[in-house]
Design brief:
Four copies of one chain form a homotetramer. Chain A is an alpha+beta fold. Chain A folds into three domains: 12-111 and 185-241, Gyrase A, domain 2 (2-Layer Sandwich), CATH 3.30.1360.170; 122-179; 248-295, no CATH class. Chain A is built from twelve helices and eight strands. Chain A has helices spanning 12-15, 39-50, 57-69, 89-95, 142-168, 173-176, 194-204, 211-228, 230-241, 248-258, 262-271, 284-295; strands at 22-24, 28-36, 80-88, 102-105, 126-128, 136-139, 185-193, 244-246. In chain A, strands 1-2-3-7-4 form a five-stranded antiparallel sheet. In chain A, strand 5 (126-128) and strand 6 form a beta hairpin. In chain A, helix 2 crosses helix 3, helix 8 packs across helix 9 and helix 10 (248-258) packs antiparallel against helix 11 (262-271). The model of chain A is unreliable at 1-5 (pLDDT under 50).
Chain lengths: 302, 302, 302, 302
Amino acid sequence: MKETQIKRASVPALESILGRVFPVLDHGHVRVIDYMGDDAAIVQAARVSYGAGTKQVHEDRGLIRYLLRNAHTTPFEMCMLKLHVRVPMDCWRQWIRHRTASVNEYSTRYSEAIADQQATLPGAWRLQAAQNKQGSEGFLEAAKGRELSAAEAGFHESARELYQSRLACGVAREQARKDLPLSTYTEAYWAIDLHNLLHFLQLRMDSHAQYEIRQFATLIGEEIVARWVPFVWEAFKDYRMNAMRLSGLETELMKVLINRDDAAAKAWLVERGWLNPQNGKKSREAQEVEAKLEALGLKFPA
Amino acid sequence: MKETQIKRASVPALESILGRVFPVLDHGHVRVIDYMGDDAAIVQAARVSYGAGTKQVHEDRGLIRYLLRNAHTTPFEMCMLKLHVRVPMDCWRQWIRHRTASVNEYSTRYSEAIADQQATLPGAWRLQAAQNKQGSEGFLEAAKGRELSAAEAGFHESARELYQSRLACGVAREQARKDLPLSTYTEAYWAIDLHNLLHFLQLRMDSHAQYEIRQFATLIGEEIVARWVPFVWEAFKDYRMNAMRLSGLETELMKVLINRDDAAAKAWLVERGWLNPQNGKKSREAQEVEAKLEALGLKFPA
Amino acid sequence: MKETQIKRASVPALESILGRVFPVLDHGHVRVIDYMGDDAAIVQAARVSYGAGTKQVHEDRGLIRYLLRNAHTTPFEMCMLKLHVRVPMDCWRQWIRHRTASVNEYSTRYSEAIADQQATLPGAWRLQAAQNKQGSEGFLEAAKGRELSAAEAGFHESARELYQSRLACGVAREQARKDLPLSTYTEAYWAIDLHNLLHFLQLRMDSHAQYEIRQFATLIGEEIVARWVPFVWEAFKDYRMNAMRLSGLETELMKVLINRDDAAAKAWLVERGWLNPQNGKKSREAQEVEAKLEALGLKFPA
Amino acid sequence: MKETQIKRASVPALESILGRVFPVLDHGHVRVIDYMGDDAAIVQAARVSYGAGTKQVHEDRGLIRYLLRNAHTTPFEMCMLKLHVRVPMDCWRQWIRHRTASVNEYSTRYSEAIADQQATLPGAWRLQAAQNKQGSEGFLEAAKGRELSAAEAGFHESARELYQSRLACGVAREQARKDLPLSTYTEAYWAIDLHNLLHFLQLRMDSHAQYEIRQFATLIGEEIVARWVPFVWEAFKDYRMNAMRLSGLETELMKVLINRDDAAAKAWLVERGWLNPQNGKKSREAQEVEAKLEALGLKFPA
C-alpha cells in the first residue's frame, strides 16, 4: 500500500457554525458540538479497500457518488457528527427509535424538567388525513384553532402547576414528572455516524414523516450535512431522496406501458388483482404505482 | 466434530405460561409471546467452540455457571425472548434506551391513544432522596398524599378531555396526542436475546432503578426467566445480582484492613483523599466502599 | 386493544427439515437448529402498531407485502433463525462482516483445526473479470486447471503436515494454526433476525457476490427461508431481489427516452458528462444505467 | 440549562502522534487517523443529564472516575477513535468479533494480497498450556524452534509462489487468495467509540488474551488512549483492569475467612462441592477463587 498523507480532517464550513444555535419549532434547536471526518475521509477509507493512494478532488466526487449509488455503506461510517438537540418529548419518542446512535439525554430524575412546552398556533392544527391513517392534511379553520390553542395554553399551565405542586411537597423528581405532557421539551447530546445519519434523514425528511421531526431532519440535512460533506449531500439527494424503487412487478408493467400497449397493461393489472375490471377499483399497490408512472411521464391505463 | 442430536428446544415450564397476562402496576402487564432456546441451547452453542458433543445435565449447569462467571457472553445470545408489554410512557422512556432489542410499539399516529393512565395511590407518593439526587426514599404523609392523588385524578380527566376534544374537531391523531401525560400507557412487542436481557435485568432490578421499571424487570426475571432458563437464572443471581466489584484501590485497602492494621488503613485513606483527617469527612468513593466492607464483615477505620 | 389469541408459532414445513444437513461446496453445510416466529408473527407485531386484531390469511399476505415494499422493517425483526454452518474461512471472512448477528464459532485455540480444506476442481478455476476489478468471469482452460488443482492438493497436504508437525512438538494450538490456509473449513452457530437475514441474502445472493458465499446464501434463501416464511420470501423476491432503483437523474433520462426523444436524451447525457460526444465513451454511471434501460425495453441513444 | 462554551475538542498530546506508525509484531502497525472528543467531552455529555454547566478540571476527573466506577457508560460513547491497523489475518479474526465498530478492510478481491506474512522467531514458539486448554505457557527449546522457523519460512515462500502462479494464469484474485496462510497481513481502517474501545482493551489486554492481539491492544491502550483521555485511562486501570469481581458465594466464603474461622470455611467449601474432603481436590470455581484470596492476603483453608 502506498503511504497516504495523514492530517486530521477539518471542515472550515462546518467549523464556522460550530456551536451556533439553529432554532427549530418554538423552543427547540439543533447545534453542532463536534464531528469527525469529511468527504475526503470517506474516500480515504474506501481506498484502503483498493490499496490505492489519494487521487484528485474530481475523482473523489465520482467515488463518493459510486459508493452511495451502489450501497457501499461502510466508508460512510468513518464520519461522525455530534449534535446538541432540544426537542419535544413527543418528537423525541420517534427520534430515539434510531438505535445506532449514542445518546445522553437530560435527566428529569436528576434535575427539574425543562419548563418549555411546544405550543400550537391557531392556524397550525392539522386535520386527520382521509386516506393515510397515520398522516395529516390541511388545517383546522381559524376560529376552531383559536379555541384549541387557548385550551392548550391553559392545559400547559395547569400541567406546570401540578408538577411544581408535587415538587413543593417534596415528591421525588422521578415521580413528580409522571404527568408531564409529551409536548414538554427535552435535550440530548446525539452522536451518529454518517451512514446511519443518512438513513435517519431519508426516513425523517420524507413527506410521510411527521411535521415536527421533519423540521429537525431537514435542518440537519440542509444546514449541517450540506456544509460538512457537500459531495455526500449532493449524491444523497440524487440517489436517495429523489430515487424511486421499482419492484419486479412494476418493471414488468412499465415495460408494457412504455411499449404503448395499454390493452396488454390493463390485462396485466386485472390478472394480478391490481385492477377490478367491474368497478375500476385499484388495489393499494396499484395506487402506489401511479406516482411512479407519472414521474416517468406514463399514465395508468384507464 | 461429533454429530449432536437436533431437536427444537422447548421448555414446558415456559410453555405453561405462554400468553398469560402478568399484571404490573395498575394497568400494565407482561406476557410471553414466544421464545427460542433454553439452558441446553446455550451449552450447545458454547460447545461448538470446543468441538465437543453433548454432556450430562450436571455438567451443563457447571458450564453455564462457568460461562456467566467469566463473561463468555456470546452463547447467551443464542436464546431469544419475545414479550408483549403494557407500560406507562414515562417508564417506556427508560426501557427503550436498551438499544439491542427489537421493538414494535403501539402507534398513536395510526390509532387512538390507550385511555389508561398510571394513577398514584395516596400512600405511594415518594419523597426526594436527600443524598441520591436521582432517587427517592420514604413516602409523603397520608393527608398530603390524598390531596396529590385527587389532583392527579382531575388532571388525568382533563388530559383525556383535551385529547378527545381535539379528535372531535378532526385534528390528526399525530398532533392531538402532543399533550398526553407521560403516565399514559403504551404497548409493545419486545424481543431481546438472553445476554442483553440479563444486562437489562441487572440494571433495572437494581435497587437504584426507578420503582416502576423495577416492578417490570423483577417480574420478568422471577416469573419468566426463572422458568425459562433455570440454570442461567441461578448463575445470574450468584455472579451478577449478588456480585461485588472491588477496584484495585479497594483491594489494596481491604488487604490492609484484613491484616487488622487500622492505623495503616487510615493513613492510606488520608493519603488518597478518601478521608479528611481534620473533620472525618469521607469522599464519595469512600462512602461507596463502606457497603462493601460491611458485606465482608470489615469496618471503616474510625 | 383487542385480545389476540396466543400460541407459540410453529412452522411444519420448517420443522420437517430441522437438523437436516444441506451440503454446500465440497465439505460445507447449512442446517437449521432453531427458529422463532413465522409469517403470522410479523403480522401480529405489525398490528400492535395499529391496535388491531388478527385478520384473514389473505390479508396477512397483503400486509407483509405492504410492509416489505415500504421498508417497515421492525416487524421482520420479530422472527429469528438459528443455523449451524460449515464454511471455508475465506468465505467466513465475508460472512462475519454482517455485524447484526450472534455467532459462536469453532475455536482453533481450544480444539484442533478441522482437517478439511475447500478444494477446487480442474474446471472450476475462474478468470479475473476484465471490467469488474473485484469479480470473475469464465473459466481457465482444462489443462491449466488440472495443473492448478494438482498444485493445490499438494499445498493442502503440506499445510496439514506443517500444522501437525507443530502440534507434535507441543506448540500451542493458538500458534500452530497461524499458517492454516484460508480454504480451511470452520463451523459456527449463527443466529440472526429476519430483517437482517434478508439484508444478508440481498447482498450475498446478488450476482456480484463471490461464488462461494452465493452458494450458501442461495441455499438459505431457497431451501430454508422459502419454507419458513413463504409470504415474506415471495415479497422479498418481488420487492428486493427483482427490484430496480432509479436515481433522480435516471428518472429524468428515462422520461425523455420514454417520450421517444433520442436527440434530447443524447444532449442530456452529454451535458452531464455521461457521454463523450467525440469518442462515444460512456461514464461509469452511464454504463450502469444501460441494464436498467434494457429491463424497461428502452435503448441507450446511439 | 446553562449555556456551555462550545469549541471543538482537540488533544495536543494525541495530535502530536497523529499518523505516526507504531510498529507491532514483525510487519504490523497501528496509527491514529482521527478522533472525536476528549476527557472534557465525556464530562460535557454527562452533565447534559444533570443540566449542569462546566466545572473545574479537578471535578472533571472525579466525575469521570465516578462514571466509570458505576457503569454509566453512555458518555464514553461520545468519543471516537479512528485507527489504521496492519494485522495478521489470524489476529484479525479475533479483532473483527468486536461488532460495535466500523471497519473498512483491504480487499484481496480488488487488489493483490499484501506480500507480508508474520514469521515466528526460533525462540518464540509457545508451548500448549497444560491447564488452560486455550492458552500457552513457556517456549519450545531452541533447536526445535530453529527447525520450525525454517519450515515456516519455506512454507511462506511456497504459499506466495502458489498465489503468484495462480495470478499468472489469470485466475481471479477472489479465488487465487483461497490458500493464503492466516499469517498473511491485512490492513483496515477501524473506528470505535471509547466505551466499546475500553471493552475491547479489557478483553484483549487481559493475560488470557492471545499474545499477538495483546500486543496490539496494549499499544493502543498505553500509547494512544493514555495520551488521548488521561483521566479515563487512569480510571480504567483502577476500576477495570485491576478490578476483581466477587460473586455472592465468594463474598460469603471470604467473610468467614476474614473472621479467621478456617474450620467453618472448610465446611462451607465441602458443603458446596468446591472441595473434596477425601482427596483435597478443588473444583474449577475453587481454583478461580484462590487468586482472589491471595490478592486480599487470605489463604485457602488447607
